[in-house]
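Researcher: Re-running this chain for the archive, since the previous output was lost when a drive failed. Same request as before.
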Amino acid sequence: MEAIVLAGGLGTRLRSVVSEVPKCMAPVAGRPFLAYLLDALAAKERVDRVILSVGYLREQVIAWAEAHRADYPFRLDFAVEEQPLGTGGGIRLALQACRSEDVLVLNGDTFFDFDPDRLAARDGAVVLALKPMTHFDRYGTVELDRHGSVTAFREKKACRAGLINAGVYLIRPSRLDLQGLPEKFSFEQDVLAPLAGSGRLAGVREDGYFIDIGIPSDYILAQLHWGPWDTLLLDRDGLVNQLRPGDYVKSWDEFIFRPEFLKAIPEWTRRFRHIFLVTNQRGVGKGLMSREDLDDIHERMLRKICQVGGSIEAIYCCTATDEGDPRRKPQTGMWQEILRDHPDVRPETAVMVGDSDSDMQFARNAGIAGLKLNWT
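Model: Regenerated structure tokens:
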């Protein structure tokens, strides 16, 4: 089996955190995102050749791939777009160099842990790997009939649950004619959408890990997935629950979970040895709520987190109003308490995730890694 990786993405939406690199070369835990895609292909042991479809800043991709050829069991080749061809044009160009009956195609800015054997077992000119998701609005949905044939693509909109196109395709070149299309075209809009309902486009539901680093918040999530840490410190307001501008969350009725957090916490729980909540709660110190109110919020919060498959080991909070209080972030009193209570925690394997500059200053003061995560 051969594979094509679309490695020429511009990364426009990532430029606030990563600039001057193609999306596939965005550094994740010290390595290009492309490295994790190739690692996964190597682990599947079905692929003997990978063609990198390159365009934007292609010199960076080619130089890295040439330097790391020996790291992979398959042959690495390149299909070079001299000008942007769109996803369809890039795939068609790379397919011209393919000889296999089954060719995998992967987006260079998306990681999906899928089973190629399950895709190869399905009939169709194209077989899509589909990821089930809940509470999302970034992706359109894919409709399947009871035989697993794709019947329709739905536009992006707020959706409670559905299957999304995960950016992984198995293409059978002998059964898919792309020659009549213009030089530049969209594979999704100009090929997949017209095939829906024809019986020639199939879909396979896969439940593996999925991340699309196309926006800064998901890029940070990728850092957490592949980073070298085993201890996770979390801020609360703005990360776990929605902020109340100019006010405090004073009761459970005012506590509204961030849906992105509820989706992330089960994976974080599997990934990290320790997860701690580290939060300033000045509303208690100001007398706007009692400590009992705060404890009730946290008890209910932990119960809900447990229900979705997550866990937070301990909560450290500072209710002082004095900015100089040694326990109040960005001072490190709460970090010192974590070290006292959990002797196996080490600064070099701990990371603080929060949504404010104060959280990042806390991380610097504590001598640990810090990642600023603003949900979008």
